[in-house]
Design brief:
Oligomer: single chain
Strand order of the largest sheet: 1-4-3-2
Strand content: 5-15%
CATH topology of the largest domain: Spore Coat Polysaccharide Biosynthesis Protein SpsA, Chain A
Number of strands: 10
Structural class: alpha/beta
Radius of gyration: 20 Å
Shape: globular
Largest sheet: 4 strands, mixed
Distance between the termini: 28 Å
Length: about 300
């Protein structure tokens, strides 16, 4: 993701909230007191492109911490920024950065999810209105598009949207058993699925459902891209989003090809960007992966199957 930012023209600061240890490729990061964030460090990728590592002290699952983190940045080390973007780390940018800057001038930038749309009276939307209505928070249907929670971009003039998203998630917390729960933890997913409602339960996707409820609760203009935005459908895509598993860095090309699944575009893009400016792999490994991709694509022309 960071390499794609740089290759598509972004220059400036990238902030990475994290728990645990800094990745091995960034151990040369230096303490940076100027960020006014305890134990913050900065990894200078290029002279005009810096990655700041900010340790997080929260028991939230980090997928539920997005609005909190962005607000902390705007009230702290990114106070002067006139716009801000969040990207899941399994997203790769495919268009020039100037288009992203232009996008947030049209409203809060969001992209349609693969599971969209949800109509006005879809049981999940009705459940949101009932739940938040019981708490004195009114939701009003805006659009059947159901957006993906892996990306958001907005101008500072739309910061109230983040404040409302945070409020919506805090109101959701008791319903899902706390914001430390997420579908990305197997035990939490099992609990959420068994709590009743199945696919109709209001917060199975936790932060993503809260984000969509925020659209209905707020008054900000929303600038939607359809499924093409994250390359879930045909059209002018801005990003590739590697949903599910395996992720591109875990993809076993020969194994997947033998099973009838040649490399996806996101896998091809990932390894085409692996050479830098952030260098995680040895050059030899990158060359082998690229060769494996070519061979897998060749085999895939004659042998493939559609996943169910």
């Amino acid at each position: 993701m960071i390499n794609s930012l740089y290759r598509k023209g972004y220059r400036g600061d990238v902030f990475a909230g994290y728990r645990g240890a800094i990745p091995p490729w960034a151990t040369s990061a230096k303490e940076n007191p100027s960020l006014q964030w305890q134990n913050a460090t900065t990894y200078e990728i290029e002279k005009d492109f810096n990655l700041h590592f900010l340790p997080l002290e929260t028991d939230y699952h980090l997928t539920n911490y997005k609005p909190d983190f962005m607000l902390q940045l705007w009230h702290g080390p990114a106070a002067k920024a006139m716009g801000m973007f969040y990207f899941d780390p399994d997203i790769i940018l495919t268009r020039n950065w100037t288009l992203f800057e232009e996008w947030i001038n049209c409203g809060v930038a969001l992209s349609e999810d693969v599971n969209s749309p949800l109509s006005k009276f879809h049981p999940r939307r009705v459940a949101w209105r009932r739940y938040f209505g019981s708490l004195g928070m009114q939701l009003n249907f805006k659009d059947p598009i159901y957006v993906n929670g892996g990306f958001i971009g907005l101008a500072k003039s739309d910061i109230v949207f983040l404040e409302l998203w945070k409020k919506i998630q805090e109101a959701m917390a008791s319903e899902i058993g706390g914001l430390n729960r997420s579908i990305f933890k197997a035990e939490d997913l099992k609990m959420l699925e068994q709590s009743g409602g199945g696919p109709f339960m209001p917060f199975l996707k936790t932060d993503q459902d809260a984000l969509n409820a925020t659209i209905e609760a707020g008054e900000n203009e929303i600038s939607y891209l359809g499924k093409e935005g994250m390359a879930f459908g045909n059209g002018f895509h801005m990003m590739h989003h590697a949903l599910g598993v395996p992720k591109p860095w875990d993809w076993s090309f020969f194994k997947q090809t033998v099973n009838g699944f040649p490399p996806r575009k996101v896998d091809i893009e990932y390894w085409s960007l692996a050479g830098g400016p952030v260098r995680v792999y040895r050059p030899g490994k990158i060359r082998l992966k690229k060769l494996a991709i070519k061979l897998s694509l060749a085999v895939g022309r004659f042998y493939s199957k559609t996943s169910s």
